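Q: Could you predict the 3D structure of Splicing factor YJU2?
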Amino acid sequence: MSERKVLNKYYPPDFDPSKIPKLKLPKDRQYVVRLMAPFNMRCKTCGEYIYKGKKFNARKETVQNEAYLGLPIFRFYIKCTRCLAEITFKTDPENTDYTMEHGATRNFQAEKLLEEEEKRVQKEREDEELNNPMKVLENRTKDSKLEMEVLENLQELKDLNQRQAHVDFEAMLRQHRLSEEERQKREQEEDERETAALVEESRKRRLLEDSDSEEEAAPAQPRSALRPRPTAILDEAPKVKRKVESWERSVGTLGSRPQLSGLVVVKKTDLDCSIQRDLATPSAARNGKTAEPAPQAPGTSSLSQLGVYSDSEDSSGSN
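A: Sure. Here are the predicted structure tokens for Splicing factor YJU2:
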């Protein structure tokens, strides 16, 4: 196994290649080669179709006494894939193709057969003209007569077409130009109409928005006139009321028990009466009215006035 990859073989010093005996083989010997079918064929024995490109183990031999310009022609033997019948074909260097020889028929070669028939007819005609000058004159007369007939038939067809169809190319071009202008004018009018509709719609939308904004702004003015400042209500409340509310938030109220308010009475002193009279005199003089005693704050509870209230009449009598 190691010698199969060796590139340089060993030759002894006394090696003489002329002493090697030559193998004498016949010239028509056959070789086994691997090939593909060169064309589609059908077996004559069983009718099996063999497509182009199917691989075979074929026997190859050189055809004796046949050559083309010094090129040898080879014959191949294959077997049908169904009935094992022998099929043979050989090379055709003249036409760069293969020719079927025995055992099958070639398919799909109608065009090739037509070309071969034309070539055969042309070759026979040339052979006749070469040996018979009168035949040349007859063939030329036939050809000229056939050509004249063809021209006459063509002219008749042209005349028939002209009678059946009178086409005015200028009128066709003019009509096409007019239709194109009308189409462009129609498209322009549609564009102008759409633009005007869009402008009108935008104007209406703007008017609606302006009217809505005016309606919303109109009732907002009286509301602002009623209360110009958010903190104005704080100035309107009296200071005494704010003090009372602060006391109630810190201490509490006895408003939920009205029966307790009757247990205490207000002790009025001479000092309180004099202070109240002095405060009421200037205001009455300015207004031109008699002074009235100041009312008690409505939110004042009995608990908040415990500091200025005295005991009940029974307690004062006992003292």
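Q: Anything worth pointing out?
A: The two ends are 147 Å apart (CA to CA).
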